[in-house]
Amino acid sequence: xxxxxxxxxxxVQGCGSPVVLLHPAGLDHQAMDGVAHALASAPARAxxxxxxxxxxxxxxxxxxxxxxLADYAADVAALIERVCAEPAIVLxxxxxxxxxxxxxxxxxxxxxxxxxxxxxxTFADELRPLLRQRGTDAVRDGMASVxxxxxxxxxxxxxxxxxxxxxxxxALLRNKTANWSATWHAIAEHDALQxxxxxxxxxxxxxxxxxxxxxxxxxxxLAGAISGARWMCVSGAPHMMQMECxxxxxxxxxxxxxxxxxAARTGSAGAAS
Length: 273
Prior knowledge:
Elements: E1 10-13, E2 17-22, H1 33-40, E3 47-52, H2 69-83, E4 88-93, H3 95-106, E5 111-117, H4 128-141, H5 144-154, H6 163-173, H7 177-188, E6 203-208, H8 216-225, E7 230-234, H9 241-244, H10 246-272
Parallel strand pairs: 2-3, 2-4, 4-5, 5-6, 6-7
Antiparallel strand pairs: 1-3
Helix pairs in contact: 1-10, 2-3, 4-7, 5-6
């Protein structure tokens, strides 16, 4: 049974049509700073950009053992109701993309569109124990024990030993092991594939060409499960595409939003005529 929604910490920039940003596991809203700044400062486009700390991350409340994706989604739905004047475009990357899927399925009134990045719709059953193990390893051996493997999955070899990797590694080490474990146990239960066909909203799925954590075939499967979803691939990008290939990632996001905004204007004009 889902628990009561937690009151999440967020940073709000700008005003206008809301875009909510959901970060990967073990990081916080700062992991989405590049795209947040690009969207909030885009000329001639009024947007309210809401960068969220999901439960168990950043300055938001801790995640208790047994917290489910439905709980993380309920938190975000409550935040949108509190902060946004209308349904939001929700952009989620990795874990944030899984939360975004659950949010759209369980709280459709909160979501105007989806941008799902570096994530899948489900996992093969044989992978689920391995995902849980990432959480239990940290509880047993500390966060330092999972940092190297995480960075290997998230970054290209060229970036693996640079300043970007050092910054991400430091952020991971700030996690409480219980929060990290709760997140990975929730991820291990992710299975939205058969439900996504019910969604009727604008959607894009953005893949990284070199993503070692979410293969292109998995992101294509996700896009295929959502009626009318657009699949986009960022050339040369790893799992943390928003950091390592920020300019190209931001351009892909902006291209999708531009298309949706143009369609909305056309629709409004047509309805008025």
